[in-house]
Write a structure and sequence with these properties.
This protein is of the alpha/beta class. It has 9 helices and 18 strands.
Length: 298
């Protein structure tokens, strides 16, 4: 596992006089000209998480990989057939429903860097991913609150959790990597399986949690998305990634009620399939794979 400061020294690049100022660098150079749109696809991978981000600077970021190889098929449908590169994979935490598909992703795509927790996990898929990363020379970087990727002015990704010293292998959910993506005036918050304990730590640090879109923590578990955290984020849109008729009862009615009381419009992969968001940094459009309307707030 490579520390963030080591990755910084190793990967910072100056391209054409333009500094790509990074706390952690993806290993590729951003373009000076920014096309109009950012695209974010919340994939329907059943009971799990997988989100693909395509930035206006032509970087591709995958946050989590679902439970199985479904994610590879979803990625192939989004990227041009000739594009076999994913610049950054963020594994929020090594549970099967977030990383089971990543070994297949690493087999099919050239991955630049992996962000992951500095933990070990006795799970076949996790060992397969780490072995593949080692064999292919892919840096695996441990990141912490405050680490930042600045692609170009107005486009950045900030790590909000976990803090150094707050990672517990017996509680990987509350150790989840949480990142906030900003494109000009629009903000997206991706929370992994962070539960109320992690939410409280983020609020206590007085971090800028506000976002337009919140990826609801832990598939809508009753132990995530506390009222205080939802109020601090103040999102207009909530996305819940969960499987239809899953055995955990996700999303839990209590979590849905808290979200609704905040007046958030809810999109769910179990009901609407893949959820695509596009933004020029000022406006945003949302389209879904299935025609069911989002749940309206009170």
């Amino acid at each position: 596992m490579v520390r963030a400061d080591t990755a910084l020294r190793r990967f910072i690049v100056v391209a054409g006089g333009l500094f790509l100022c990074l706390t952690v660098f993806l290993g590729i150079t951003a373009f000076a000209e920014i096309p109009d749109e950012l695209e974010i696809d919340f994939f329907d991978v059943g009971q799990g998480d997988a989100t693909l981000i395509q930035t206006p600077t032509h970087h591709t970021i995958l946050i989590d990989g679902g439970r199985d190889a479904t994610v590879s098929r979803k990625i192939a449908a989004e990227l041009p057939f000739y594009d076999k590169t994913i610049d950054l994979v963020i594994l929020t935490h090594p549970d099967l429903d977030h990383m089971g598909g990543l070994p297949d992703v690493l087999r099919r795509y050239r991955v630049g860097t992996i962000f992951s927790l500095d933990v070990s996990k006795d799970l076949g898929a996790y060992r397969a991913m780490m072995d593949r990363a080692h064999a292919d020379g892919i840096p695996v970087v441990s990141v912490y609150a405050g680490d930042t990727i600045r692609f170009v002015p107005g486009l950045e990704m900030v790590v909000l959790a976990p803090e150094k010293g707050q990672i517990r292998e017996e509680d990987l959910n509350n150790s989840s990597i949480v990142v906030k993506l900003t494109y000009n005036t629009k903000h997206w918050l991706f929370t992994g399986d962070a539960a109320e304990e992690s939410e409280n730590r983020m609020r206590a640090r007085a971090q800028p949690l506000s976002a337009d879109v919140l990826k609801i923590g832990h598939h809508g578990s009753r132990f995530s998305s506390s009222a205080a955290f939802l109020q601090a984020v103040g999102a207009d849109v909530a996305v819940i990634s969960t499987g239809a008729k899953n055995p955990y009862g996700h999303p839990h009615p209590e979590a849905l009620e808290r979200v609704a009381r905040q007046g958030m419009t809810v999109y769910r992969t179990d009901r609407q399939g893949d959820i695509e968001m596009r933004s020029d940094g000022t406006f945003m459009t949302i389209t879904t794979e299935k025609p069911e309307r989002p749940a309206s707030p009170f």
